[in-house]
């Protein structure tokens, strides 16, 4: 790596590393997740009381037993970060009203944080290997004492090492004294140690700590044991006497991975995906897909030979859109070995559909490797590894190299995106009805879908029953343990035909297909796809060769060449004849000169005249000389002509040979025309006549954008059948390989330990265990926050594929760990949806960026750019999109929208996408049976702000709509209520929870769950969709700053509109909001919403119709 490049990459990573130092741990968010009895605030006074023994006492319910504690030590307000910034950093230039509001909305530094978290066992003894620290207090202390320039990875590493020594001394002293539970004095001592280490001291009014108790139900059920090789479900007791050898980071999920990436840069071993991510391309390295050169690439890349061989089990009559197809084909080509590929997908353009086909294609390609094995054990290396987890070890068989590199991980900062991809993928409604008989580990997937509640197991129903275990959501430790329990241990009794089973029980059952028969079936399906693919590529070649379909055009080039050669032959022949004529002329000239010399000789004078050189003698001599000269010249010309004749004859013969060859070629071309025309006709009769654009510009037409090129239902079914066969082959392999005498059996033990958050002592053994897990579950998902912990121990480029979803919502540093561990990465998102939310003050982020010339311009600032933006900038293929008066380069764009009806589609398309999206739904109008029989409207409700942006009249209106719908349908309505503002969200939630119902009312628990799931800020609904969406706008003319901020970019309104499939209702002051940018499109113009008052929603009848009746919804 060039020194300049190394310096640049290190500067970017170090900048993000410094930024992450200041991110405070969200202690209040942690406590909000707990029941009231699960935590206790430990005040200074309580610990200072002499002989206090009650500092850690918490009463737990009688049906619970304590398993341990978490002590959050050194509590202080997050606002300390802002206070330090205001004290030390330069005063920023005055902000505009919009920027100031954005800063207030984004920099949420309210609530409590802490210095460290220390795990305690159930008796209250501290656990040496359960300590994590926050970097924020240390960063604040360093900044206060030495300034921002004193922050750095090496400085923190030294400080962390020093703190580890302090903790080891603490535990050594406890061991020598045989200490029991942590005492109040020790808590005070640890608190003082942390403050001195950080150089930062919270105010005296702050609590010393918060104690969280961990419990489990008293009644436990031992897991079934299928064999002595199965992993145990019991967790090992922690050893509190182990020394502290490392400290986890409490406040930042990304610091560790940033440090790993920086080490890779220093050693020159940067994975291709990460290097590409951090390196924007110059304009001359990019190819605009809307240009002529770009369209040529599109056309060529959509050729049948580039199609993926695997296809999701969807409706064969529904084609991929043109740009979906291009992204799929191009990603396959660009990421053959490694790299990064960015896809820019507006809402509803099929990002999930695209990812599904990428998954299917990878699964098929791995199945091709399996199909080449003679036996199931051939999938493993010949030599096993001895893998040790603490005091237990087993043999683990690594996979052969050919079966690795297919690992697939979906990552996102958005929990909903993770769930959409991995959880919904396994539900039956993810498959077309044609494929509902296909299953993959279906009983095991069913077992994992059973939710364990206090009242007992809750089984999935109908379409929520999984069809197969193609994916799973892991992430945090709790999710991994829950998955482990469902995979190996939880057994449920069911009287249904489809019974859930653990993996062990499934392995005990006989399977309908052996590995050998599944292999044979897959090979047949693979051959069918290969044959069909070759046929379609042959048809593409024939269409390209035969051109416009006339024989004349097909033979035109050969005919032209023949005509040209015929002309050349004729010209050469004429030249030869001319040469012969000139030879004849010259020969005649020679004869005349000879005769002339004979006549001259008759006049020859006698010897006496010649001796005396008489005049006659001199004349005779002169005439002889002149004649001789002329004869010599004539002979010379004749020789030249004869030499030229040889050359000309040779040239004529050569041209004649060429003419004859061309004539034969012309004849062959004519015969080829007839043969290929017949072949094309036969292929078209069998496959259908493909609809192709007449010109490259025609690729812009909706028919091609929607249906793509070279789609046909027959081939789609064959590719889906191959995917189904691949799943059956993988299932048959797993069943046979997992039998007691085969090699996968012992590997399951290691997989169980890894899912139980235990690590092999040899870090190099982590990857083989994960690779074996991916042979069970092909796709695993996680949030960025859990990525480093889930894949702890994996080195750079260890994972075959990483797919980043909703990348426009993720701060740029969040993806570093995923990119560092990935060999190939596909980034999917949309920068015109909700931007990343990063809570540190802009003033601090800018000051940290100024420390390096590579980051001083905010081009890598977390509050300015997202993962999607950086991936787009690194993409070769894409286009320019207008945004805020600038031209923004975006990665490979998806364009066909298949979610929203009008007016949502047209508004979003005009407002955010420069009318580049194409409407792809079969029907333009929404269904005739809506939740509310009113067209999408702007409900003009005005009022005065009561708190922040809350307008009570709008809150009351929305609550009455929900109440009326419930009383009409006896069920909480299927709708979303979103708002740009947290205050409006909170006000509506509180209002709904506190409402006094007249007549039928929902259960309180159901209402709470509905409110949590269906009412929120626009930010929290990205990635979701619903038939009906209300957007509560809030604000008034005297408090318009929030409205101006919400309208300053298209993102908020764009996301709100595109959550709604059938109806959207904006609720707010149309005179205020309708004058603002972007919202004005919804208030007036071609796609304006109908303007109504609250009275239009007066009566919501059984049929869903809304009629005026102010007595029901009334005036607030």
Automatic annotation (TrEMBL):
DNA2/NAM7 helicase-like C-terminal domain residues: 894-1070
InterPro entries in the record: Coronavir_polyprotein_1ab, DNA2/NAM7-like_C, DNA2/NAM7_AAA_11, P-loop_NTPase, SF1_C_Upf1
Region annotation (Disordered) ranges: 219-242
Domain DNA2/NAM7 helicase helicase: 650-837
GO MF annotation list: 5'-3' DNA helicase activity; ATP binding; hydrolase activity
Record CDD domains: SF1_C_Upf1
SUPFAM superfamilies linked to this entry: P-loop containing nucleoside triphosphate hydrolases (SSF52540)
UniProt keyword list: ATP-binding, Coiled coil, Helicase, Hydrolase, Nucleotide-binding
Coiled coil: 638-672
Family: Belongs to the DNA2/NAM7 helicase family.
Protein name: AAA domain-containing protein
Origin species: Pseudomonas poae
């Amino acid at each position: 790596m060039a020194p300049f490049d190394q310096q640049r990459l290190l500067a970017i990573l170090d900048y993000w590393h410094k930024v992450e130092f200041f991110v405070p741990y969200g202690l209040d968010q942690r406590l909000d997740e707990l029941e009231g009895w699960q935590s206790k605030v430990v005040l200074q006074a309580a610990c200072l009381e002499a002989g206090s023994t009650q500092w850690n006492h918490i009463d737990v319910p009688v049906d619970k037993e304590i398993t341990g504690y978490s002590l959050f030590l050194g509590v202080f307000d997050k606002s300390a970060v802002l206070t330090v910034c205001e004290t030390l950093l330069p005063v920023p230039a005055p902000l505009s009203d919009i920027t100031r509001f954005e800063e207030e909305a984004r920099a949420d530094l309210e609530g409590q944080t802490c210095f460290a978290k220390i795990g305690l066992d159930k008796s209250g003894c501290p656990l040496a290997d359960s300590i994590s620290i926050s970097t924020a207090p240390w960063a604040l202390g360093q900044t206060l004492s030495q300034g921002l320039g004193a922050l750095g990875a090496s400085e923190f590493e030294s400080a962390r090492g020093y703190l580890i020594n302090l903790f080891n001394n603490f535990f050594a002293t406890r061991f020598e004294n045989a200490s029991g539970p942590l005492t109040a004095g020790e808590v005070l001592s640890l608190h003082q140690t942390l403050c001195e280490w950080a150089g930062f001291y919270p105010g005296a009014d702050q609590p010393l700590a918060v104690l969280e108790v961990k419990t489990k139900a008293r009644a436990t059920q031992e897991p079934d044991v299928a064999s002595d090789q199965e992993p145990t479900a019991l967790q090992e007791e922690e050893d509190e006497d182990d020394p502290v050898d490392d400290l986890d980071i409490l406040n930042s999920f990304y610091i560790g991975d940033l440090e790993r990436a920086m080490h890779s840069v220093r050693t020159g071993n940067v994975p291709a995906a990460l290097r590409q991510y951090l390196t924007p391309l110059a304009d001359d390295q990019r190819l605009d897909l809307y240009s002529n050169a770009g369209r040529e690439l599109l056309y060529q890349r959509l050729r049948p030979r580039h199609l993926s061989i695997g296809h999701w089990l969807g409706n064969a009559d529904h084609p991929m859109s043109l740009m979906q197809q291009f992204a799929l084909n191009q990603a396959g080509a660009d990421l053959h070995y490694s790299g990064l590929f960015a896809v820019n997908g507006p809402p509803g353009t099929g990002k999930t559909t695209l990812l599904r086909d990428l998954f299917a294609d990878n699964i098929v390609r791995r199945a091709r490797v399996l199909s080449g094995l003679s036996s199931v054990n051939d999938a493993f290396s010949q030599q096993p590894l001895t893998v040790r987890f603490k005091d237990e070890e087993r043999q683990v068989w690594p996979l052969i190299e050919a079966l690795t590199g297919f690992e697939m991980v979906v990552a996102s900062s958005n929990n909903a995106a993770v769930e959409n991809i991995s959880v919904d993928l396994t539900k039956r409604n993810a498959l077309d009805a044609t494929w509902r008989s296909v299953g993959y580990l279906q009983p095991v997937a069913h077992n994992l879908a059973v939710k364990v509640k206090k009242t007992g197991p809750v089984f999935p129903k109908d379409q929520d029953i999984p069809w197969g275990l193609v994916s799973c959501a892991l992430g945090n430790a709790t999710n991994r343990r829950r998955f482990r329990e469902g995979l190996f241990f939880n057994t449920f009794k069911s009287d249904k035909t489809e019974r859930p089973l653990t993996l062990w029980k499934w392995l005990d059952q006989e399977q309908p297909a052996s590995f050998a028969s599944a292999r044979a079936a897959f090979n047949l399906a693979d051959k069918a796809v290969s044959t069909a693919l070759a046929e379609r590529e042959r048809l593409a070649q024939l269409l390209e060769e035969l051109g416009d379909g006339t024989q004349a055009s097909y033979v035109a080039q050969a005919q032209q060449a023949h005509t040209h050669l015929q002309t050349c032959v004729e010209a050469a022949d004429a030249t030869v004849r001319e040469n012969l004529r000139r030879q004849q002329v010259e020969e005649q000239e020679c004869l005349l000169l000879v005769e002339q010399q004979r006549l001259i000789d008759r006049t020859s004078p006698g010897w006496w005249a010649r001796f005396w050189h008489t005049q006659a003698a001199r004349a005779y001599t002169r005439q002889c000389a002149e004649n001789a000269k002329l004869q010599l010249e004539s002979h010379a010309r004749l020789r030249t002509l004869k030499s030229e004749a040889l050359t000309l004859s040779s040239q004529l013969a050569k041209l004649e040979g060429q003419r004859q060859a061309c004539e034969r070629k012309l004849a062959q071309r004519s015969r080829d025309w007839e043969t290929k025309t017949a072949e094309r006709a036969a292929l078209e009769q069998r496959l259908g006549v493909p609809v192709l654009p007449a010109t490259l510009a025609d690729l812009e037409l909706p028919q091609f954008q929607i249906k793509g090129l070279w789609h046909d239902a027959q081939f789609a079914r064959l590719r889906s059948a191959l995917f189904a066969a691949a799943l059956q082959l993988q299932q048959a392999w797993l069943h046979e390989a997992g039998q007691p005498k085969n090699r996968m059996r012992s590997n399951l033990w290691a997989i169980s330990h890894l899912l139980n958050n235990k690590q092999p002592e040899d870090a190099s053994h982590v990857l083989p265990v994960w690779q074996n897990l991916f042979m069970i579950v092909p796709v695993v998902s996680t949030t960025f926050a859990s990525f480093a912990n889930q894949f702890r121990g994996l080195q750079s480029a260890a994972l075959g594929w990483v797919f980043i979803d909703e990348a426009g919502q993720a701060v740029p540093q969040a993806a570093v760990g995923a990119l560092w561990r990935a060999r190939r990465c596909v980034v999917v998102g949309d920068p015109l949806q909700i931007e990343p939310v990063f809570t540190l003050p802009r003033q601090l982020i800018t000051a940290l960026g100024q420390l390096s010339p590579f980051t001083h311009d905010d081009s890598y600032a977390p509050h300015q750019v997202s993962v999607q933006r950086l991936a787009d900038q690194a993409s070769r293929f894409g286009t320019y999109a207008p945004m805020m008066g600038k031209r923004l380069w975006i990665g490979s764009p998806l364009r066909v929208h298949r979610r929203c009806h009008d007016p949502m589609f047209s508004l979003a398309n005009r407002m955010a996408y420069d009318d580049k999206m194409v409407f792809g739904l079969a029907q333009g109008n929404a269904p005739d049976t809506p939740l509310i029989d009113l067209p999408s409207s702007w409900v003009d409700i005005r009022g005065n702000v009561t708190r922040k942006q809350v307008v009570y009249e709008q809150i009351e209106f929305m609550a009455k709509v929900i109440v009326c719908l419930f009383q009409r349908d006896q069920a909480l309505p299927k709708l979303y209520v979103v708002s740009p503002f947290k205050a409006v969200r909170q006000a509506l939630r509180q209002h709904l929870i506190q409402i006094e119902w007249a007549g039928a009312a929902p259960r309180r628990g159901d209402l709470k769950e509905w409110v949590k799931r269906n009412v929120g800020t626009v930010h929290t609904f990205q990635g979701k969709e619903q038939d009906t969406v209300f957007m509560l706008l809030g604000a008034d003319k005297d408090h318009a700053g929030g409205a101006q901020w919400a309208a300053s970019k298209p993102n908020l309104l764009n996301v709100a509109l595109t959550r709604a499939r059938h109806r959207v209702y904006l609720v707010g002051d149309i005179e205020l909001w309708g004058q603002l940018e972007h919202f004005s499109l919804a208030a007036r113009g071609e796609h304006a919403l109908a303007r109504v008052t609250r009275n239009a929603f007066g009566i919501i009848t059984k049929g869903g119709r809304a009629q005026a009746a102010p007595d029901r919804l009334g005036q607030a």
